Amino acid sequence: MRSLRGITVKSRVGFLTPVANLIGAVRGPKYDGSFLHDKIKSLTHDVTIADTVTNIVVPAFDVKYLQPIIFSTYEAKNEPLKNAHLSDICISTSAAPTYFPAHFFKTTSPSGESREFHLIDGGVAANNPTMVAMSMISKEVLRENQDFKLGKPADYRHYLVISIGTGTAKMAEKYTAPACAKWGVLRWLYDSGFTPLIDIFSHASADMVDIHASDDLLVGHTSSVDIATEENMEALIGIGKDLLKKPVARVNIDTGVHEPVDGEGTNEEALARFAKKLSEERRLRRNNLNSS
C-alpha cells in the first residue's frame, strides 16, 4: 500500500511540476526584478552610457515598435536621445522574457525633446552580439571616427573578435520534426521543462553570426540562467577550468557541432596568444601616442 501511494504521489508531482511552471509563466514573470533593479541603480548611480570609461555596445529590443535598440558609447555622444542612464540600459538588457518584467523609461535631450523606450532583453534579436559590435564599427568607420581609422580601402584584418564563456546548454537533437509536427500552441511554448519556440528563436539568431567556440557541457542546474547557488557557481567555475584544457574548436556550419582544429592547441593556449596580441597592440599605441 505504501509503495502504491509512493508511486501515486511521485506521478502527481511529476505531472504537476511542469504544469505549475507553465501556469507561473502565463501569469507573469518569474521575478519582479526589484532587488536586481535596486542593485544596478546602487552601482551605476546617474552615469550615462556616454560617460563610460571604455566604449561599450549593449543590445535591447523595443516591444512597442518591434525593433532592436542598440545603445553604444559612440552613438550616445552623437545622439542625445540615445544617451540613456546605464541603470536603465542594464535593467532593459537583462529583462529576459518570462524571467523579468519589460522596462520602460524616457530620455530627454538638452533641447527638450524626449523619447520613450519599451525594452526587453536584447538577446531576442542578438543572442550572439558579435554582429552588433561589427555593425557599430562599420558605422563609426563611415563617420570617419579617428578611433577606427583603417585607411583607404578599409582593411578589417586588424580587428579580432573573441567571445568568452563557460559553454552553452546541451540543446542539440532535443527536438525532432515528427514530434514537433504533433504539437499545438502550448507544447511549442512549453515542453518537459523547456521552451521550444524561445529556444529555436534564440539559437537561430545566435547561429547566424556564430563565429566563436563554445561547448555543450552545461546540463541540469548549470544550464539555468537563474540558479545562483554557491554549489552551482562552483560547478560553473569547474566547467570553465575544464574548458580551458580542451582543444580549440570551431563550429561546423552544417551540423552546428564544434570540431577540434589541428595545430591550434588548447583554449588556454589560444587565450594566452590573444592576450599577448592585446599587450603588443597596447604598447604600440602608447609609443605612437608619445611620439606624436
Automatic annotation (TrEMBL):
The keyword Lipid metabolism applies. It holds the Pfam family Patatin. Lipolytic acyl hydrolase (LAH). Keywords: Hydrolase, Lipid degradation, Lipid metabolism, Plant defense. PANTHER family: PATATIN, XYLOSE ISOMERASE. The nitrogen atoms of the two glycine residues in the GGXR motif define the oxyanion hole, and stabilize the oxyanion that forms during the nucleophilic attack by the catalytic serine during substrate cleavage. GO terms for molecular function: monoacylglycerol lipase activity; phospholipase activity. Gene3D superfamilies: Cytosolic phospholipase A2 catalytic domain. The keyword Lipid metabolism applies. This is Patatin. It comes from the Eukaryota. Belongs to the patatin family. GO terms for biological process: defense response; lipid catabolic process. It comes from Oryza sativa subsp. indica. A motif (DGA/G) lies at residues 121-123. Residues 1-134 form the PNPLA domain. SUPFAM superfamilies: FabD/lysophospholipase-like. Its EC number is 3.1.1.-.
